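Justification of resources, computational component.

The compute hours requested in this renewal are based largely on the per-chain cost of generating structure records like the one below. Each record pairs the submitted sequence with a full structure-token output. That output is archived, and it is also reused by downstream analysis tasks.
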Amino acid sequence: MATPPRTTRPARSEAAGVSAARIRLGRVFRVESKDSFLLLGTTLFLVAFGLVMVLSSSSVESNLEDGGFFVQASRQGLYALFGVPIMLIASRMPERVWMTCAWPLLIISCALQLLVVATDLGVTVGGNTNWLALGPVQFQPSELIKVALVIWLGLIVTKKQSLLGDFVHGIIPILLVGGLAIGLVLLGGDLGTVMIMGGMLMGALFLIGVRFRLLLPPVLLGAAVFVIVAVSSDSRMRRINSFLQENCTTIDNDDCWQIQHGRFALANGGIFGVGLGNSTAKWSWLPAADNDFIFAIIGEELGLLGAIVVIGLFVVLAVAFARVLRAARTPFAKAVTAAVLMWVVGQACVNIGVVLGVFPVLGVPLPLVSAGGTALLTTLFAIGVVLSVARDPEAATRAAARAQARAEARAAGRTAR
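The structure output for this chain reads:
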């Protein structure tokens, strides 16, 4: 009885499918530049590290307030679960998409912030009215304004590229619209966020090549407004006086309490730390241990070495942004990258400086690390926009040329045989 011939077509077909999938996947990754991978990898590492530290720093207060040790950490993890895909999706969008939605996004975010400061929907936390309550959902429109300003700045710089050396026709329109958006946040009393947004706007313009002499008048005006608003509030003046007081020795003063216990936590950590999860400051001694002062918990549990690693990660993040900025080919890409660089790295410097006693308490979180859903989502989204402009547009062409050359070489070899 004859044995039926064996066929290898399905196996060959399956192998061909796997090979094609590898080629397609390879082409996708070739489109990304090395700077993109550096930025993406550092961001994901900081997010993962932040989830661990939020779990550690929030467990006690979470159990007292929410009835479970993991409630706050689970909530932060859920935000990260949504935020990372949003970042990856944003990284695939072309510039024209961002330019199209720049004005609508800025208008919507400003309208939401107007609801915060002009209606009963605004929620006051820590003396600042910067939260919007829509039913069971609470979020910070000021964080959305940051993203909107980033994209809008890229659009307006693209349109006014030839006028950026003209103060009247180039700089003033940017300052008027940007100042209006920042002013809405200032009406809520969130001076820390206003400072970050102002630094982001001015710093981005400087990094893309606007002359310093054109930026000096608005910088001086902004500094004057900052001082006036600061001295007009009793709570802010108490915080400033506590900062100026040597060692803030009045430990019974509420404004000194947070500063002192932040330093106690850092001192308790020493060089190697007391171990992950073993912080004593988080046991209701240090306010905002999982948010504004999470760096103090990092220093206590992981020690000086852990704190240096975190600072080093933000240095790497700054280097990644700088490399993307240097390689940017369009005005939009330059403006967006410069703005997000000033936002994320500048805010990290301010947060760490507050914990170390370099600045008075300003109430800004550590980007990508501190607890806070709105801040995490918007920061990841903004980094996704930078990743979208950091893609190497010539990589696909080079890959196709190499593939064509290999195919021609194989064809020539078969012909020779």
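Residues 14-29 have pLDDT under 50 and may be disordered. Residues 294-327 form the longest helix (34 residues).
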